[in-house]
Amino acid sequence: MANILDGIKLSKQIKQEIKDEVIQYVNQGYRRPHLLALLVGENAASVTYVNNKIKDCQAVGFKSSLVKLKNTITEEGLLKEVGKLNETDGLDGFIVQLPLPKHINQERIITAINPDKDVDGFHPVNFGKMALGIESFLPATPYGIMEMLSRYKISTEGKQVVVIGRSRIVGRPMSILLSRKGNPGDATVTLVHSKTVDIPKHTRNADIIITALGVPQFLKADMIKQGSVIIDVGITKVEDFTSEKGYYLSGDVDFPEVSPKASWITPVPGGVGPMTRAMLLKNTLFAYSKEIK
Ligand code: GUN
């Protein structure tokens, strides 16, 4: 049976470290770090995510703000809001929660964010730095997975890693980070996606599989090698009228059949998700520490 990569336990440790650091700054007379979240519209998942981010800030002693905008806001209107936040003193970082309404060009908004305040690490400048190995904000989910591998001392050097999914915020940066020099890193990375011919051919050879697909129970036992490390980024609501909530949360991995064959595995929920949340705080603390120096 696989060992569990416990994202809840690890994220608690990380949050405690952040909280301790904030206390030290405050004791030296500095202000608290400040993170702001910008939410456009009322997408249910986005509302939950943003509320969690605000809660996390409070838990570690950050100042936090939430700006809610109507989903009828124009692209120009949103650009203006971003411009204001870029210039706000004492605001260390802000995030524009994605997805944005369809009438707004997401790339245009992301590119308008001041890269020094882009604690999501989504701006092309930060993405470029990430790809080149220059210190920058790393996108929170891949960063959280790197931290998880590091703290569980799972070596990636020379390993065959398969990343499933090439999204802007998870799969693509994940594949780059693991192919960079260093630890974690130094892996041989294959990025598979919707146009890949024969995904199982690749996953069966992998020492480490990272799935970021959003297809419940996609990864089956016959698609993996004995003893591989399985990291599941997927989290999809599946309707279930027999449960109290009317749904359950499913990862991309068929956990009951895959876990006996794996050496390490992340649960869903309680794996990657809490790590993502912790790393946004880490990025904010990094922005803050550069700002007050
Ligand atoms: N939507 C889903 N994940 C994220 C994230 O990490 N940041 C932002 N801004 N939006 C998201």
From TrEMBL:
NADP(+) binds at G165, R166, S167, I235. Residues 139-290 form the Tetrahydrofolate dehydrogenase/cyclohydrolase NAD(P)-binding domain. Pathway: One-carbon metabolism; tetrahydrofolate interconversion. GO terms for cellular component: cytosol. SUPFAM superfamilies: Aminoacid dehydrogenase-like, N-terminal domain, NAD(P)-binding Rossmann-fold domains. Its EC number is 1.5.1.5, 3.5.4.9. It holds the Pfam family THF_DHG_CYH_C. Catalyzes the oxidation of 5,10-methylenetetrahydrofolate to 5,10-methenyltetrahydrofolate and then the hydrolysis of 5,10-methenyltetrahydrofolate to 10-formyltetrahydrofolate. This is Bifunctional protein FolD. It comes from Apibacter mensalis.
